[in-house]
Specification:
The protein is an alpha+beta fold and 196 residues long. It contains four helices and nine strands. It has a single domain, classed as Cysteine proteinases (Cathepsin B, Chain A), CATH 3.90.70.10. InterPro entries: Peptidase_C39-like.
Length: 196
Amino acid sequence: MTELRGFPVYQQATDNSCWAATARAVLNYYGAGGGAVYASDQALGVAWQTASPSANPSHADINVQQSAAGALLDLGVNNAMDDAALPTWDEIVQQIDQGFPMLTIISGQPLAPGQARNPAAQQGHWMVIVGYQVIEGQQALIVMDPSYGRDFEYKQFDPAVCGPFPQGTPTQYWQNTSYLDPPAAAARLETPKSDS
């Protein structure tokens, strides 16, 4: 098993604040914000409102589903969406091995053949890919899922379906995955830990 050392685990404060919980986990991992630590989803939302070029007051509303990618961009973390909804296994391994988390959003609706992905996706559930492992020959991703706010969840590596999920949960599909560049101010990039 290989996962990012010290990546924070947060539980989202509201039903819709997964975007804020994932964005603050990324920022706190990188040590961004000039030493500021985002202690809550609300603190992240207020910081985004202040940092956004339009000072949009809706960015501080953690009760509304918003874009973690947009918040991170305005708060100094460049991110670029992969060409596929989920990058290849080798691409993910390379990012984790270099100490970079990957931002991802899932949804209950699969993309139709030829349907363009929305880089500003706001409807879905935001998570962060923080590691990988092979379990009994099966490739699995380790994600920080703010729904649970506890240890990382394991998701079978499948470019279409994100799972498994607890019984009774509808099937979820990968929508977007973004590469995250550390902010220029971030001096922190630890070597991932490997338990293999």
